[in-house]
Amino acid sequence: MAVTRLKRKERVNKVVAKQRTASLKLHNKRVMVKSPYKDESGIILDSIPELDN
Fold it and tell me: Which residue in 8, 27, 29, 35 has a CA-CA distance of 20 to 30 Å to 53?
């Protein structure tokens, strides 16, 4: 009986370890998005109301 309990525990441990590594990979993944205003002065001209008139 102890052997089957150990096999079951081993199976559960493997599943938990796979889920843990999958979630860690998902959380550590960084999505790098290039800024569209990187080369400009940092002021977005479209949003200034004085210039829209």
Answer: 35
Contacts of 51 (CB under 8 A, 6+ apart): 45
3/9 Cα distance (integer angstroms): 10
C-beta of residue 27 within 8 angstroms of C-beta of residue 20: no
Residues 1-53: tens digit of each pLDDT:
688 999 999 999 999 999 999 999 998 888 877 777 676 665 665 665 665 55
Spatial CB neighbours of 45, under 8 Å, sequence gap ≥ 6: 51
